[in-house]
Amino acid sequence: MGISRAIVVHPELRMDMSTRPPEMMLAEAVRLVEAIGLPVDHAMNIRVNTPRAATLIGEGVIDNIALHADEDCLIVINASLSPVQQRNLEQKLSCKVIDRTALILEIFGERASTSAGRLQVELAALTFQRSRLVRSWTHLERQRGGGGFLGGPGERQIELDRRMLDDQILRIKAELKEVERTRHIQRQNRQRNETPTLALVGYTNAGKSTLFNLLTGAEVLSKDMLFATLDPTMRGLRLSSGRPVVLADTVGFISHLPTELVEAFKSTLEEVVEADMLIHVHDASSPMALEEAEDVEQVISSLGLDEEEQARRTIHVFNKMDKIKDKGAISGLCQRYPDAVMVSALTHSGCEDLNDSIEKFLARTETTLNIAVPFHLGDARAWLHEHGHILKTQKNEEATEERFLVMLSEANKARFLSRWPELFENRLAKH
Ligand SMILES: Nc1nc2c(ncn2[C@@H]2O[C@H](COP(=O)(O)OP(=O)(O)OP(=O)(O)O)[C@@H](O)[C@H]2O)c(=O)[nH]1
Ligand SMILES: [Mg+2]
Prior knowledge:
Elements: E1 5-13, H1 22-34, E2 40-48, H2 59-68, E3 73-77, H3 83-93, E4 96-99, H4 100-111, H5 115-135, H6 137-140, H7 157-193, E5 197-202, H8 208-216, E6 233-238, E7 244-249, H9 259-264, H10 266-273, E8 277-283, H11 289-302, H12 307-313, E9 314-319, H13 331-336, E10 341-342, H14 351-364, E11 366-374, H15 378-387, E12 389-395, E13 401-409, H16 410-419, E14 429-430
Parallel strand pairs: 1-2, 1-3, 3-4, 5-7, 5-8, 8-9, 9-10
Antiparallel strand pairs: 6-7, 11-13, 11-14, 12-13
Helix pairs in contact: 4-5, 5-7
The structure holds guanosine-5'-triphosphate and magnesium ion.
């Protein structure tokens, strides 16, 4: 029989500095298990005053779990287990036991659908496995009988496992490099086009994909499930002023995101933080919205965007406002992010405000030029249409020239200037 149901245990560890109430942590762990399609039979919070080296949790609790468990059961411990602890628990309970990191890896493994995504998950899983081999060195020491196909007789199995994992890790890293090279070229092309890229970031289930679909008309899976999205999607769209931008939807974050995953997904995530603008989507209806925001900011910091740079490049969106009956309930969030835009991706309320806020943000990094282009310079006019954000055009009476009120990024302004310097002589005026 395979595994058909799960028991979730959240050990409340005293050294855990988390500000979240344990029942919230437990509820999130249950949702993580549901994200791999397993029904949760029992969920329990347990207080662990002295973590046991051999099993983490005490005998009494193990007996209690055993009352509900059988071999069709997966036991999920919402903490980090050492390989020894995991093995001992499996022996005592006679069923499969995994910890939070293994669970999240499992979800990612199910979701990955692009080749890059699959490689990244595989890399994370192998790194995780390898770290466990090293840590459990003294406990997992086994001899492999002679004639094993993996190596000479008498060689330690663990060394073979380690070597095999290292080989696989190297192979995957090489494959990933190739994928990254292609993506890098695509990114460079986008940058050359100067179409600004906006990336949706946020805690898992905040509503990023719903908002993405609403803004772009795409049909990315949005679902009431943790980690519905794994692989990034990009779509072009026009803001209401007609200005083109590229919007990116991507994987959501969670508290205690396994470091192996952050490391393996670094290139995907770096692409996110390299966007010209980050749209941090908050689930305003979550009682843990502030803590979730902190987790998101921490992951982004770990990718190299310090607090100041993040603040400069991010706008905040409070989503699911349709669920908020009393604004007092989100006063903490409002205090922390006073300029946030309030929307509901479900009822579409606040979308115009979001549009305006994006336009305003982009305008901050651009200069507005008022420039007259002689009619015969068709290529200059076409260039402005392609690369600039045109606010207004007007032909003169004789129809010999067209005046543009246009917003250009600094880089594009320099390009235009070097190509058509004559247009700037005596004509350039800051709007
Ligand atoms: N009530 C309400 N529900 C919303 C809103 N926006 C999204 N949802 C729901 O929230 C759930 C999660 O939405 P997604 O768009 O999949 O969230 P996500 O941020 O992309 O999540 P991951 O991809 O898992 O990180 C879905 O059930 C949506 O229907 C909203 O404005 N109001
Ligand atoms: Mg999503």
